[in-house]
Design brief:
322 residues; 2 strands; globular
Length: 322
């Protein structure tokens, strides 16, 4: 039983990576662009890496320590390849063409272009597997917000207007993308506006998330975060709080997503903005916060989650590029 999770994570990685490699040209796996047959070496290495990660993060305490570094590694690889592409090494780009590396473009891009749903379907596919965990494990920009928020030891509080503001940002992005399309704004101009939106988002991280200790960019500014939180509820993974909880508040102090406020704890489940980051699990001294998945025991439910996160992380590490 001990070896089943790493084996399952390795197989999941191969299941995701191999079809992508077989059905794309040029090769999706970077090593294959430089060394003949290198794609399959990289696929095997990613599978072994997924097995290693699954073994390590089975312990909730280790998961809480490793998740930010795993997340930052993916972001570093993603933006590192983008930087090399910008410098003229086109083999580091997915198609040889640049697209703004801003999560909002996943939604705004197809609205502006009137098509091109690849990233939308990729996001939806991830939500089917991992639900809202996209925002705590797999978003290439979210790790920056996480790093900024951690500069303050304990999270502060956000305004009660944050939900309305978040919905307003989503509506503004949708209307702006459609308006640019109707006005036939050149794609280059629209691209620079998207970059500007991303720069403002980084400013939110540096100026607000860092000061409050809360992931304000992800919770308020990023429209994809609201989409993920909403559609992620279709995924069966859940966190539940046992009625025996003493309401000590230790989990509240650990949550950067404002999903474990006293009202949520009293209700027995995290709030709408929970991303299954799992940082609350090792903080709960009584073990009252547990994973749920259909009719499985909490331990087995969390094992399934760990396998999915390890496999998706390794796959994104190999396939994530602009």
């Amino acid at each position: 039983m001990k070896y089943l999770p790493p084996i399952a994570a390795a197989l999941l990685t191969l299941f995701l990576v191999v079809p992508a490699e077989l059905h794309t040209a040029p090769t999706m796996l970077m090593l294959g662009r430089f060394v003949p047959g290198g794609s399959w070496v990289q696929a095997g290495a990613l599978a072994l890496y997924a097995a290693f990660i699954a073994t390590k993060i089975m312990d909730p305490k280790v998961h809480a320590r490793w998740r930010p570094w795993m997340w930052r590694l993916f972001s570093l690889v993603f933006f590192g390849q983008l930087a090399l592409g910008v410098l003229g090494f086109e083999r580091f780009l997915l198609s040889g063409r640049l697209h703004p590396p801003v999560p909002a473009v996943i939604l705004a891009g197809p609205i502006f272009r009137g098509g091109g749903l690849f990233m939308v379907f990729l996001l939806l596919g991830t939500l089917v597997l991992a639900g809202p965990a996209w925002c705590s494990h797999l978003c290439y920009l979210g790790s920056w917000d996480d790093a900024a928020a951690r500069l303050r030891r304990r999270p502060g509080a956000l305004s009660r207007w944050r939900h309305a503001l978040r919905a307003g940002v989503l509506l503004l992005v949708v209307l702006a993308a459609y308006g640019l399309r109707v006005l036939e704004v050149p794609p280059v101009t629209a691209g620079w506006l998207a970059v500007g939106f991303g720069v403002v988002g980084v400013g939110v991280m540096v100026g607000v998330s860092r000061r409050l200790g809360v992931m304000v960019h992800c919770l308020v500014f990023c429209p994809i975060g609201l989409v993920v939180n909403t559609l992620g509820k279709l995924n069966p993974f859940r966190l539940r709080i046992d009625p025996a909880c003493t309401q000590c508040g230790a989990c509240t102090a650990a949550c950067r997503y404002q999903a474990l406020e006293p009202a949520h704890i009293e209700a027995g489940k995290p709030g709408f903005t929970c991303t299954l980051c799992s940082e609350c699990l090792p903080r709960c001294r009584g073990g009252f916060i547990q994973f749920r998945l259909l009719g499985l025991s909490p331990d087995r439910a969390r094992t399934c989650f760990v396998v999915l996160m390890a496999g998706l992380h390794a796959s994104f590490l190999g396939l994530g590029m602009i």
